[in-house]
Acyl-CoA desaturase
Amino acid sequence: MAALHVRTDAAVTKARPNDEPVALTPPMTPPTLDAALPPVTTSAQPIPENYVEHILKTTKALPPITLSTLYREINWLSLGILTVSPALAIYGLRTTHLSRQTTIWSIVYYFITGLGITAGYHRLWSHRCYNASKPLEWFLALAGAGAVQGSIRWWSRGHRAHHRYTDTELDPYSAHKGLLWSHIGWLVLLPRRKPGVADVSDLSRNPIVMWQNRNYRSLFLLMGFIFPTLVAGLGWGDWWGGFFFAGAARLCFVHHSTFCINSLAHWIGETPFDDKHTPRDHFLTALVTIGEGYHNFHHEFPSDYRNAIKWFQYDPTKWFIKACQLVGLASQLKKFPDNEIKKGQLTMELKKMREIQDKIVWPSSSNDLPVVSWESFQEQARHRPLIVVAGFIHDVSSFVDEHPGGRHLLSKNFGKDATVPFFGGVYDHSNAAHNLLAMMRVGVLRGGLEIESEKAIPPSQRLKVVRAEEMFMTPESSGVDEPDA
């Protein structure tokens, strides 16, 4: 999107002489540090202008999936996990009584394992939005294993690729491939090409992350099914309820809650910060994803520990991280500068305003109107209801009988300069009156509009959204001829 600015049409841009020195305040690099800077080196391999296009051209994708090859292209482990848990939950609903204690425990464990993904896998390890103490890291690593979505290292590698290559062929769950693909298809079917490169060297140095990675197969069984069953069984004797509901049914909800971040959060909602890509903000998505639904903000400011920046927006993950900070379990919570967040919001508001502005019919400018002498104006005013206001000649024939003050107030100014009466001499007209009058322009009075005064600019145009290149556009570059002198 081209840069948008708001300026007043009365503003004048003054050119700076070429020989005038430019002072940078503060200096970009202190002079005393110049000697400490490393020498500039040139990479042997030039960086392509578009990395994604370069990879797509230089690497070959796997052939498309057909009915005859479908069985070889299924990720059977993922398919098994994603189908067994809902099947067990349905069987449990038909055969096992759901007690109140087990219902409460299932909901609590849903949030525990969900936070393992949102506060742990996502905001802590994928985006490093805050620092966690060792006890909190262990808790989130175990809780995340209970969500059965892969190890921290595997999950974060894919998610970092998703952010780096959003909506491209290198995005492992690109929304451009469809809602079903971004929700679950990318897990069930083997991808046609590897996800884009993403650096996870920091995670490879984390002993807790690597411990979980080595022991993940045992941990997902332990935390996904055995632990919730033990709590319900030892706690109130509901072994089967703990297995079917706190284990299988809860897991099914956690899965699709998280998957909605990749699918629903890229399909419904608004784009208040950037519309370059598909992520969107919506309360409904936040509700089903433990606060991850303000996704447009997240993709624009991924290192911010918040998804929802307003206090009333639903973001339990943000509240959990903040609570951990208050008790000393988390520190260095990152928040993007409020000034930069407002820039993003303003950019989108300006873009919307520009779209509205481009659909509106505006009055003719002085460049598009004939220049008429005072004598010619008076001659023509004998046959047409013409008046002069702020240097512009207006034909008010369509409004004479509609004038709220009566026809006589307009008719007595035919052939005259009515600037003073219009600007408060007789009546201080409203913004709507100024805007409407400007639409009746038919000419410019010679000598009456050497430079358009503020009075000549209708209120609707005193603030105008212009693109950066339009601010410095000359009549020659715009194809508009200079007005007659």
User: Anything to note?
Assistant: Residues 6-38, 479-485 have pLDDT under 50 and may be disordered. The beta strands are 4-7, 131-132, 330-331, 371-372, 386-389, 392-395, 441-445, 464-467.
